[in-house]
Amino acid sequence: VSIFGNVQQKTLEVFYDGPAGKVGFASGGCS
Amino acid sequence: KIAENHHSHTIEASSLFPSTSCKSSTKILSNNDNKTSLKVVHKHGPCSKLNQEKTIAAPTDTEILLQDQSRVKSIHSRLSNPKTSGGNDVKVIDSTTIPAKDGNVIGSASYIVTVGLGTPQKELSLIFDTASDITWTQCKPCAISCYDQKEQIFDPSQSTSYTNISCSSSICSSLTSATGTPPGCVSSTCVYAIQYGDGSFTIGFFGTEKLTLTPTDAFNNIYFGCGQNNQGLFGGSAGILGLGRDKLSFVSQTAHKYNKIFSYCLPSSSSSTGFLTFGCSDTKNAKFTPLSTISAGFYGLDFTGISVGGTKLAISASVFSTAGGLIDSGTVITRLPPAAYSALRASFRKLMSKYPMTKALSILDTCYDFSNYSTISVPKIGFFFSGGVEVDIDVSGVFFASSISQVCLAFAGNKNATD
After folding, report:
1. Is B397 close to A11, i.e. CB distance below 8 A?
2. Which of B216, B307, B330, B407 could bond B382 through an S-S bridge, CB–CB 3.0 to 4.6 Å?
3. Judged by CB atoms within 8 Å, which residues 326-385 of B form the interface with A?
4. Which of B102, B217, B246, B328 is the catalytic position?
């Protein structure tokens, strides 16, 4: 499988929405 | 970062490395009725209390990459051997032998949060892991073995809120799907066992305890593993906070409060901080892609394309769909199908051709020597996911920097197209 690893996730806010079955990304999430 | 245009970042070469002191995020961690936030730090950076006094050695870059490869192998193994098949019963407490028919994943998972456990509560730093289901910590009396951890080892006998789970309980039986290993039974108490892909493992009593995230958000009777035989690469942390999709994960156990919604931000370097939030956050700037059905155990993600320097690479959609994809908080380096990685590497090398290349670092084969540069220009890299979502990687996510003379593109190819 392809795996989106944690180096590439840096500073993105990564959202997990189980009930809606979706994953989201927002730039500049840490600041 | 000095400058940015549509297609590249210009950065100071020195910014590729963490500073020696911790700089906390400027983001205010606000808590309210709907959400609770914890600070996230890198296990081995200056923001981590596990790193103070440096009594526990950090792994080398090569060790980190080797551990990461073990983690990826165990993910592949788990996908090809779903954990519902059961297996031989486990030898517990009196032995270190547990079945290795598949592997849970640990590798170099390296971001930690601090939670409170028990009554009175004891602070414990746990690795948070979206590919683990069970939350566990080392417990006294460490009947067989405990590895070195920075904080005091949790002692259930000193907590008024600890309870053992009985072997006859249905929740004990459900350990098979969450751990890949059928439960054991000692003196009528349920025993869990988890073996990780790199050979690390934890075995102990399955119990319930009060877990406190913040002074206003505490949960009674959270199922967790109280480890009596713990060995492996946990880097001084007290255990794992399992954020996977199984019904025993912390996310599922707190669904009544947070509805299985959580988010996190991993900091740009080990000398800064991020956060882990349970419950609804502000998502107005977020782009969403559907969770794919690659596996019930992982958060599946459908990759559809890659752009480098503003140009979308010519990669057939079938290259990504052949094996599927997932997102993982614990895998360090993004893995791509061989054809996708080749295209990314070729384009990146072309746009970076003004810089001298140097020797490979373990699984990373595109490395540069920036010794003679004070600033560098780095092409932007973007990922496309199903639903037309494009996510630009931050410049901190492009390289894995070992030293100024060996800074490597932080992507790797899988061995086979079907991996």
Report:
1. yes
2. B307
3. 326-337, 340, 383
4. B328
Q: What is the amino acid identity at position B330?
A: G
Question: What digits encode the pLDDT tens for the residues B111-125?
Answer: 999 999 999 999 999
**Per-residue pLDDT at B49:** 85
Cβ–Cβ < 8 Å for A26, B267: no
Size of interface A-B (CB pairs under 8 A): 177
Distance CA B200, CA B70 (A): 11
CB contact under 8 A, B301 and A4: yes
Angle at B161 between CA B158 and CA B162, to 5 degrees: 70
pLDDT at B301 over 70: yes
Residue B271 has pLDDT above 70, yes or no: yes
Separation of first and last alpha carbons in chain A:
31
Cross-chain residue pair A1–B290, CB shorter than 8 Å: no
Q: Decide if B328 is catalytic.
A: yes
Which residues of chain B make contact with A12, given a CB cutoff of 8 A?
265-266, 391, 394, 397
* Catalytic residue flag (residue B129): yes
pLDDT at B99 over 60: no
From CA B42, how far away is CA B278, in angstroms rounded? Answer: 19
Is residue B112 within 8 A of residue B126, CB to CB? The reply is yes
| A-interface mutation test, from B258, B390, B391, B416, most A Cβ less than 10 A away | B391
pLDDT beyond 80 at B91: no
Q: Which residue has the tokens 């414990």?
A: B124
Q: Look up tokens 């959202």; give the residue.
A: A15
Q: How confident is the model at residue B67 (pLDDT cuts 50, 70, 90)?
A: confident
pLDDT at B281 over 60: yes
Q: Which residues of A touch B289 (CB under 8 A)?
A: 22-24
C-alpha to C-alpha distance for B12 and A22, rounded to whole angstroms: 36
- Mean pLDDT, chain B, as a whole number? 89
Interface check B249 vs A, CB under 8 A = no
User: In sequence order, what are the beta bridge partners of B193?
Assistant: B203
What are the phi and psi torsion angles at B289 (to 5°)? Answer: -125, 145
State the residue for tokens 């920036």. B370
Residue B61 one-letter amino acid: D
Confidence of residue B6 (pLDDT cuts 50, 70, 90): confident
Name the band, by pLDDT with cuts 50, 70 and 90, for residue B393: very high
CB-nearest to A2 from B25, B111, B323 is B323
